[in-house]
Every structure is written in structure tokens, then in C-alpha cells.
Amino acid sequence: MKKEMAAQAALVVRGNWSRIKKLMVRAQAGEDLHIGFLGGSITQGSVASAPEKCYAARVYRWWEETFPNSRFSYINAGIGGTTSLFGAARAWKDMMCYQPDFVVVDFTVNDEATPIFQETFEGVIRQLYGNGRTAVLILNNAFYDDGRNAQEFHNEIAAHYQIPAVSVRESMVAMLRDGTFPAAEITSDFLHPNDKGHELLSYMITYQLDKIYADLGNAEEEPEYPAALTQNRFEDAKRYQIVNSRPELKGFLVDPREKTALLDLYKNGWTARREGDCFTLDVECSYLAVQYLRSIHKPRPVAEAVMDGDSAHAVILDGNFDEDWGDCLALTEVMDAKERGSHRLTITIKEEHPEEAGPFYLVSVITD
Q1: How far is CA 260 from CA 51, 89, 153, in A?
Q2: What whole-number distance in Å separates Cα of residue 366 and Cα of residue 342?
């Protein structure tokens, strides 16, 4: 009973159900449909003992079991430790190119509760939802110890577009606080759910899908697609790698290895090892961030990023990662100029190590 009450409380934005209902009618008719998940490590399936036990795979099975006459394909585009800024830059390549019919979006623990991440999150949503066809559900994961996440900022977007939003803070975190479950039963680090936690998380979503399916006979009219809530600079976010840019390289080398899978992260970029090695890229943008490898295998070179020659506001890009859980795909803001213009990014190696464990690895440059 408490589990069902928590699932009822999980729906923090009801939104409009017309797209999901239309999708369910198509599923009843036996169409071939594509079910997608875009987010961070929880979506990827971190801590689950097997890929099929993560929440995304479980929600996907709900579609298969509820509509046995349809054929479904599964698109899991979760990448650990990533925000909606990276999500906006990869939404087309990693999700929308597959023409998904239903997408769960999950960036609420990796995004900070700030206006810039509301804007990047809206960039993701407008790419997924703006085609007038794809049904979307927003998932608000949360830290289990204190419930912190960015859901206030994200759910303003959900309400603006009338997209259903399901909150872990209002459901699973609440269950821990009232003693329904000891924390150790569902998480080992108060962030990533274990198998039991993934099962509960999937229930919070499929409970809502069951409610929508039960209400299928009540028609809803889809609201008019609204204008953007934010400045909306990230609906057409760009990601520069070796395949689509021509930087000036002095000491930096192209990594020619082919990327073969979504999680093959450290490919198609540039490497550098020596103090003074320099990378220069001219871009048209108002916002720029640098994506690079921070590694537990140390020491690594340290670089700095400078915009338009303004060395007084240089940003340090440290290739050394002090955590012990694995390498990090870091994404660091270098410029937010608000107004679009022509800019020059210069990345220079400032600190090299003779006994280095590996080079500085520049993965990509992301702009609005």
C-alpha cells in the first residue's frame, strides 16, 4: 500500500497525456515502435547487476508485455556523469535519429539547480518533443540522503510543455524517510539504485503508464506547442570533434581511432602531452564548454582554456581526477557571453609530467 501511495505521489506534473495515449493506440494496433531513454548513469544502468535489471530495461519490458502484438526496439542512451548540456549536444545523434516514439529523459541529479541548466534542459526537450509526435516522460532522480536535485527548474519546463514528470524525491526518497525501506535495501551510495532500487524506480514510471492506459477511452486534446520558456540557445547545440571542425593544432594530435559504440567515449578527439602544446578553434556562439578526460590514472597534463585572448579569466582543465570510481567525462563552462558573436578558443598545456600515465585528452567543444 505504501508503495502504491508513493507511486501516486511520484507524479509531480500530470501534464497532457494525449501523445502517450495515441502511442498506446498504435501499440494496440501492432505497430513497430521505438522506446528510448536519455540521461546519465542511472539510465545507463549503473550499479544494476545486469543491463536487463536497470529501470530503463524494465520500463521497456512493460511496453512489450502490455502490448504483445507490437514489436519494440530499445534505445538506451544513458551516459554516466553527464548533464543536459551534453544531452542537448547529442540528442539528435544518440536518440532522435532513431525516430523514437517514447522517450524518458533523466538529467535531474547531474544538472545543477541553476538557470543555465534549465536552459540546456529545455534544449533537450525541444529537440525530443518539437516534432509533434514523440511522447516524452521526464524523470526526476534525486540523492536519497537529502533529496537534492534540479527538479524545480526542470519541472517548470515540464509544466510549460505539459509533459508528465515523475519524481524520486516525492516517492522513493519519501519511502526511505518514513522507514518503508532501509536505505541499504535500494542503494549503496545514496544516488545509484541497486537491483531493488531499479525495480522500484521502474514501478514509479509504469504505475503512471498503467494509469494512462486505464484512461485511454478519455480523449485529450494536445495543447499548442509553446514558445520557449528560456532564451533557448541550446535547441541547436553543436558538438565539435575531429569530424566537423578545423582547429589550428600546434602539438595537439588528432585521435584517428573510430568510435564504435555510445559508451566508446574517448575517441574522435585530440591529445597533447607537452607544455606549450596549443589548440585554437574559431567559433560563432554565445556559450562554450570544453569536454575532456579526467583520469584516475595519474599524472596527466594540465591545460588552460582562454577565450579571445583574455588570459586573466583562463579556465583550468585538469586531466587528473581525484575520485576512485573511474575516469570522468568532464564538461567545463569556459564562456557565457549571453550574446552571439565570433570567438576564439585557445587551449594550452600548462603543466606536463615526464612520468605521465597518459596524455591530456580533449574530447570535444560544445557550443550553443
Answers
A1: 19, 18, 35
A2: 15
Q: How many helices (H) and strands (E) does the chain have?
A: 9, 15
Q: Which CATH class is domain 2-214?
A: alpha beta
Helix (H, G, I), strand (E, B) or coil at 166: strand
Indicate the length of the chain as a whole number: 368
Q: Which CATH superfamily is domain 238-367 in?
A: Galactose-binding domain-like (2.60.120.260)
Q: Which three cell numbers stand for residue 74?
A: 530499445
Q: Which residues contact 119 (CB under 8 A, 6 or more apart)?
A: 230, 231, 232, 233, 234
Helix segments in the chain, DSSP class H: 2-10, 18-28, 41-44, 55-66, 84-94, 115-129, 151-161, 172-177, 195-214
Tens digits of per-residue pLDDT, 77-133? 999 999 999 999 999 999 999 999 999 999 999 999 999 999 999 999 999 999 999
State phi, psi for 328 to the nearest 5 degrees.
Answer: -120, 130
pTM of the model: 0.97
CA distances to 253, 279, 281 from 248, in Å: 11, 6, 6
Distance, CA of 81 to CA of 111 (rounded, Å): 10
Peptide bond into 301 cis (omega under 30): no
Segments making up each domain of the chain, as ranges: 2-214, 238-367
| Grid cell listed for 229 | 520558456
CA distance 303 to 312: 15
